[in-house]
Amino acid sequence: DSGVTQTPKHLITATGQRVTLRCSPRSGDLSVYWYQQSLDQGLQFLIHYYNGEERAKGNILERFSAQQFPDLHSELNLSSLELGDSALYFCASSALLASGNTIYFGEGSWLTVV
Amino acid sequence: GQNIDQPTEMTATEGAIVQINCTYQTSGFNGLFWYQQHAGEAPTFLSYNVLDGLEEKGRFSSFLSRSKGYSYLLLKELQMKDSASYLCAVNTPLVFGKGTRLSVIA
Predict the structure, then answer these.
(1) What is the pLDDT of residues B28-81, one digit of tens each?
(2) Contacts of residue B58, Cβ cutoff 8 Å, sequence gap at least 6
(3) A42 and B96 in contact by Cβ < 8 A?
(4) B interface toward A at CB cutoff 8 Å?
(5) Is the Cβ–Cβ distance between A47 and A89 less than 8 Å?
(6) Are A4 and A24 in contact (CB under 8 A)?
(7) Among A73, A97, B30, B60, which lies 20 to 30 A Cα-Cα from A82?
């Protein structure tokens, strides 16, 4: 158990809908990262927050947004869902902002868009 | 941009040694990580290299050559439970390669 908690574990929704994925980082970790993993693309970095502020953006679509709250939990919002958004979404956390900090992954949220 | 290359699949025999290679091209370098991921599960941390050389941790070792943009993960005394994907990643935030799926056979 990494200490990173993600909900829901599984989600099935229809195209065009909107969903919110939730992440609680390890106790004391200030950094939260979101990754998307699909079969053909591997693990893709989406976005990084540190202590409530956005620090880096990766291949995140405009239909997707995220935020980190004062209690350090984070949410990833996915809207106007398409079939291709079906994937495993991971949240990860690390203690600091500095390079070389190990990041720890949650168990992921399986999203299926039908 | 960043580019990370790993072999897609490898097969090795239980009890043997296997080396998984990773080459990378980055505009800056903050360190290289190896993660293990079983199918449908979370990636778990294996090793971190920021300086050239070999880091050993039990049955697993990782090597880095920054001048060559090259790393390898060495797994010794392979066990069936080592069947998994091994992900090479660089920098912070981590950018991952597509992973190497290792199958350990009896």
Answers:
(1) 888 999 999 999 899 999 999 999 999 998 999 999 999 999 999 999 999 999
(2) none
(3) yes
(4) 30-31, 33, 40-45, 48, 50, 87, 91-99
(5) no
(6) yes
(7) A73
